[in-house]
Design a protein that fits this description.
Elements lengths: L1 H43 L3 H7 L2 E13 L2 E8 L5 E3 L5 E11 L4 E11 L5 E18 L10 E3 L8 E13 L3 E9 L2 H6 L13 E5 L4 E2 L3 H4 L3 E7 L7 E3 L5 E3 L10
Length: 264
């Protein structure tokens, strides 16, 4: 009886260490699995810095605030709450707000914001979100404000050291509850129009604007917006991109010697 009792108790005295070893092994395996998951996640989801490198070009729908005398401004401040618009032949209007980015090297684009469609009477017919679905084209033009070396620029929207420029950006977009269309957004500074007269005649441009076309969209009348302070700004963090860069004094200077402008 005593021998049988001792034999029966021996496994009970050893069960504690065995359980501890089993729990420790399980914890080690769980930790290893967690580390592996984190490693895979970091590879599948690039950081913000990687995303910015992938899409170095950015656009902002901008409100221009002229500083000083509006007829002879001493500078401009950029606000990212711009609402550029365009009208359709029936008098209705589309108004957009938002921002985005693209890469001309990879033909990728992203972005979006809010839209409002108003009827000819001014009543709101539809509103919601809009988003970029694809990149189509970008045409860059040289030239900038050209309003003298003391013309100040504040509220620079691009990253430090980025260059800004004028041009036409074409994107495929989708409007919530309205469908797909083609958005063209352009930034045309005063010096650009002087250097490229065909933009003013016969194209009829006098400034920044947008157009939106598609099966349900025919917003191609940009005249009213181009005479307003609602516009578009383009920036690039790509060192190879020519354009104008902001100095510590708040003025912009020509970035590339290949650009034959005389600066601001």
């Amino acid at each position: 009886m005593h021998a049988s009792t001792n034999i029966g108790r021996t496994p009970q005295r050893r069960s504690g260490p065995r359980r501890l070893l089993a729990v420790s092994a399980a914890l080690v395996m769980a930790l290893a699995a967690l580390l592996l998951t984190l490693a895979l996640s970091s590879n599948l989801e690039p950081s913000n810095a990687a995303s910015q490198k992938e899409l170095p070009y950015t656009f902002f729908f901008t409100h221009y605030e002229l500083l000083g005398n509006p007829n002879n401004p001493e500078g401009v401040r950029y606000h990212s709450n711009g609402h550029p618009s365009a009208k359709a032949p029936d008098g209705s209007k589309v108004i957009l707000a938002g921002k985005g980015a693209w890469s001309p090297k990879t033909d990728n684009a992203k972005g979006g914001g809010h839209y409002t469609i108003k009827g000819s009477s001014g009543a709101v017919k539809a509103q919601g979100s809009w988003r970029v679905t694809d990149f189509r084209a970008f045409e860059q033009f040289s030239g900038w404000w050209g309003m003298g070396p003391n013309f100040k620029e504040k509220g620079w929207q691009g990253p430090p050291g980025s260059s800004s420029f004028s041009g036409f950006l074409t994107l495929k977009v989708s409007l919530e509850n309205q469908g797909k269309g083609t958005l063209v957004a352009w930034c045309l500074m005063p010096q650009v129009l002087k250097k490229h007269p065909h933009l003013a005649n016969p194209d009829g441009h006098v400034g920044d604007g947008i157009s939106l076309t598609g099966s349900k969209f025919d917003f191609t009348n940009f005249k009213e917006n181009e005479m307003s302070l609602e516009g578009v700004m383009f920036y690039s963090s790509d060192p190879a991109t020519p354009g104008y860069v902001l100095t510590p004094k708040g003025t912009t200077v020509r970035k590339s010697a290949a650009d034959d402008d005389n600066g601001d």
